[in-house]
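ok trying again, last paste got cut off:
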Amino acid sequence: MLMSGYRTSNIFHAGENFRSEERSDRISVYSLSGLASEPQHRIFHLTGLFRSQRVVLGFRAGLFRTSEIAVLCITLGMHATLAFAEDKPQGDSTVTGSSLAAHMSALELEATARTARSSGQYQQAEALYAAGYTRFPAQSVFGVGQALTVIDQRRLSRAEELVANLEQRWPGHRDVLHAKAYLKDVQRDFSASIGIYQKILDAYPDDNYAYRQWVLATNFLGLPRLALKSAKKRPAAFSTNDWRVMYSDRAAIAIRWAYMYEPDLRIARERQQQAVAYSKFYLGYLSRNFPDDTVLRHRGVFDYILALHASSLMQDLIHQYLHLIEEKLKPGDFPVEVLNAIADAYLYLEQPDESMSLITEALVKDSRNFNSLLTLFFAAIETEQFDVAETTIDTVISQQPASFVNHQLVEAVRLKQLLFSWSNRLAQADRGLSDLLERAPHNAALRSDLAGVYNARGWSRKSIDEYVIVKNIDSEYLERRIGQAESLLSLSRFADFEPRIRNLMEDYPENKRVQDLAEDWKIHKMHELSAVVSGGRSTGDTFGSKELQSEIFYVSKPWRDDHRVFAHYWTSQADLENGRAAIRRYGMGGEFRRPDWDIAFELSQSESGGDTAVAMRAHWRHDDRNSVIFSAEGFGQDTPVRAWDNKIKAEAYTVNITHRASERYRFDGTYRYMPFTDGNNRNEFGMSAYQLLYSEAHHQLALIENGSYSDNSKTDTPYFNPISDYSTALGLEYQGVIDRRYDKKFSHRLYGEIGRYYQRGFGNSETSVIEYDQRFHSSKTLNIFYGIRFQRHSYDGKEEDWTGFRAGIEWRFD
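nice, full thing came through this time. structure:
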């Protein structure tokens, strides 16, 4: 967030002596660098622009965002960063001797001095004015001229002495006031110069020169809208270039305001629209009045790109960039912060390779630019280069001063912890964020991030509690609003979730993380179709020499968000000694979901008719870690085909208790009771433990332990039915990501297991299992999977090898 989440820099440029008609530079939103980022109040809103963010704690949401752009506030003191004139001019080395001035009249001497000053011969002009002031001390023009030429040479201390002497001798004299105002202009003390020009205008209201200078000083003080309003009262006093400067500065300041954090969304949107409108107007003014000045036009387009970026109009931004490329500009010709904005836009549009290329250009120009490095960080995540992302964020951290904590350091350290979360290292992210919160317990961003990690670890209730604390710290913090909605959806608290996602989409439709969550809600409201088929061949015939199973579920769109109806069909077939036997059943039912529990009922019958049965399944989630599942089947889906072929069927009653400590540890205990219609009663007990040994962005390894026991009350049956048996097994499961790009993912899984099996009356034997499967997610709504399995097991003392396959599809649709 980014992104998801933008990074830009301070946006004021050097000005110039606005006494000259032509201005070589202007306020430019890209010329100075700097960043101030509050950990709780973003200086401006990240529009979610980084997809988490790309991955926002388990969700791929967008970078942009959460890496966020921040800009410094405009104050009346901003003139301290403006250059109101060029550097100290070199002047000339020729000084006219006093002998030349001694033979001139006052009129001739003043004209000669003025000509020398106009031609940039400031030292000669100073000498002439000084000589004239000595010969004609009553003529203020010589004293004023001398002061002006000293100011021209940037000898400001000497100029202050001369102006002070002039004020003492001619207090309130208009020319003396103009000289003093000029001195203040060059010193960048625009507040003072405005006051002096106002004093001149009070005495001489028709002084258009003073009016022009007053307006332009107002503009340079950071008030271009007031300057333009005032200029329109005396348009003849301003040149075409004066208007250009004011229109340019108005657009630049509007862009700054568009980037700044504003809790009132109406005001924030108005600022963004204003920045775009003013930038477009300025480009139109340039095309009408400076059609051949490509330098000015390119600078105007650079500002326009930043205005579009602040307004999240990313496609329009890219169009502007491509137009400049068509004009033969190269990425290296763009200012760094403009490259950052373009790279962010490509990230927003899910084109991370283009973003990576541009940000590399930006770092060539400024290898330490904070915003560029954060953009590289998110681009690396989006291109699955997590090692590059970690190296980059470590570089950012190492570049921060170690003597004190600053906002950039806090942001970088925070992003590193989130990187652990996005790269499948949730426990490490949990520890890191918890440590940071011990030092900054009231940091809303850190606490919100930790809440998101809790949700990703399966602790949705715990995350909700954290979000309540965040709300008390900063009720307007956007990431808290989004994260809380994610947790509510995870808990199936649909009544609480729906108004929140509706409000988020109304307030922040451009935010990638909000868009991602809204898409999840849309998918929740879709129809669902799933189908699985599996089969295999065995070297024995305990369950049949060949087997084939298939199952299809259709689930309707939710009614009132938490009610759904479904249709179910399944079949189990086996090749037995007397031919193929099969169980085929279809049913219909309904499902009802609540935050702490859900329940489903199904009425089914055999394909040939009859054998009507009712099934029920209930799931109770006591808390984030413990849950219980109970199911009752009037016709057990695990009824052996051999039993059915002999007119025997079974009911099934199952209780499963799960303790899921986190994504790293899970323990399950199961009991199932199956009464058969032939009088046999089967009891089954099972226990399993799951331990995640290693995990990172593309690989994880887990250890799985299994144990089971069963007994039967009857032994002489046509189906496999040991008096009692038990087994233990130890398995190792590897899961890896082969390729991933946003919601598309291609992954695979390898599982190996070895164990021991004991059957009463037949002793011990070894067991082994090898499985391999692949899964392809083409989108959030469609994924397919397929795999193979080899198993070696003994039944009644006879070892059997079984080789099989499994494939399926899961599809959501309107």
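cool. The chain has a mean pLDDT of 88. The domain at 98-236 is CATH 1.25.40.10 (Serine Threonine Protein Phosphatase 5, Tetratricopeptide repeat).
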